[in-house]
């Protein structure tokens, strides 16, 4: 309201030569109406805006290979980082979601996951996200369970593009018999 009154005062001073001039009065009312319309729009709260939420996100990419290592596809993973510098090992560091390109049909699918602290010391933190999913062919000839690990080593925050990286030693694949999949590998 104060902005509107200041704007009106400035407008009146501009047209001080004759307050009875119909053109001047029309301009004053027009400016007043426009000022009122602009002020009627509620402002978005600064706390919790889309920009704030984006500031605490991360994303990563990997490729995984199965079926003897000859067939592979993409994994795009992203999550929300929850500050964890004073949390104990095993604490949650936020949710994540992955879009996985299937190797049996090629049709992408989504999987939810969660991340947790695996190390927390004065030199930094380690957060790990385990992405568990399974694949099978439509004829039931083969099936495999995949567990792909993404790890972040940081001093205080795991945010931004490629803050997390795929971890080959912590990722695995098992076939229907429970044995390791032949040729399984993950790459950045």
Average pLDDT confidence is 79
Uncertain spans = 1-17, 34-47
What share of the residues lie within helices? 10-25%
Give the distance, in angstroms, between the N- and C-terminal Cα atoms. 56 Å
In the residues, how many domains can be counted? 2
Task: Name the shape in a single word.
Answer: flat
**Series of secondary-structure elements, N-terminal to C-terminal:** HHHEEEEEEEEE
- Supply Rg: 29 Å
Largest β sheet strand count, sense and barrel closure: 9 strands, mixed
What structural category do the secondary elements indicate? alpha+beta
**Count of runs of 4 or more consecutive helical residues:** 3
Number of strands: 9
Beta-strand percent range: over 45%
Write the layout of secondary structure elements.
Elements lengths: L1 H13 L7 H18 L10 H6 L1 E10 L4 E10 L11 E10 L6 E14 L2 E13 L6 E12 L5 E2 L3 E11 L9 E3 L1
Parallel strand pairs: 1-7
Antiparallel strand pairs: 1-2, 1-9, 2-3, 3-4, 4-5, 5-6, 6-8
Describe what you observe in this structure:
The chain is α+β, with helices and mostly antiparallel strands and 188 residues long. It has two domains: 2-39; 57-187. The protein is built from three helices and nine strands; from the N terminus they run H-H-H-E-E-E-E-E-E-E-E-E. The protein has helices at 2-14, 22-39, 50-55; strands at 57-66, 71-80, 92-101, 108-121, 124-136, 143-154, 160-161, 165-175, 185-187. Strands 1, 2, 3, 4, 5, 6, 7, 8 and 9 form a nine-stranded mixed beta sheet that branches. Strand 1 (57-66) and strand 2 (71-80) form a beta hairpin. Helix 1 (2-14) packs antiparallel against helix 2 (22-39). The chain is flat. The two termini are 56 Å apart. The model is unreliable at 1-17 and 34-47 (pLDDT under 50).
């Amino acid at each position: 309201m104060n902005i509107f009154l200041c704007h009106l005062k400035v407008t009146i001073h501009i047209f001080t030569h004759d307050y009875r001039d119909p053109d001047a009065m029309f301009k004053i009312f027009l400016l007043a109406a426009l000022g009122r319309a602009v002020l009627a729009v509620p402002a978005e709260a600064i706390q919790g805006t889309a920009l704030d939420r984006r500031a605490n996100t991360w994303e990563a990419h990997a490729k995984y290979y199965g079926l003897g290592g000859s067939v592979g596809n993409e994994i795009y993973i992203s999550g929300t980082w929850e500050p964890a510098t004073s949390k104990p090992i095993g604490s949650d560091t936020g949710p994540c979601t992955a879009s996985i390109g299937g190797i049996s049909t090629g049709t992408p699918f989504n999987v939810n996951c969660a991340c947790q602290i695996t190390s927390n010391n004065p030199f930094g933190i380690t957060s790990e996200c385990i992405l568990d999913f399974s694949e099978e062919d439509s004829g039931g000839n083969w099936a495999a369970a995949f567990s792909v690990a993404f790890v972040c080593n940081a001093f205080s925050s795991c945010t931004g593009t490629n803050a997390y990286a795929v971890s080959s030693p912590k990722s695995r694949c098992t076939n229907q018999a429970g044995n390791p999949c032949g040729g399984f590998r993950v790459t950045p």
